[in-house]
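S1.2 Input.
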Amino acid sequence: MGVCALLAGIAYGATRVATLDQIALVITVGVVVVSLATYVASIRRRRHDRRAARGRVRSRAMS
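S1.3 Output.
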């Protein structure tokens, strides 16, 4: 369903934008933004997982 919405958005945008260059720019910027957001989320998750794993090791050693 998301793919259909994306294609519909692209088709609508193509009718509203005068040049293909503008469409390519918007799509490229969108891909870069999504990629950066995914990368940052991955780093945060990795740090969280490492902290959680260290906490478990300490608690097992203390018992």
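S1.4 Remarks. The chain has a mean pLDDT of 82.
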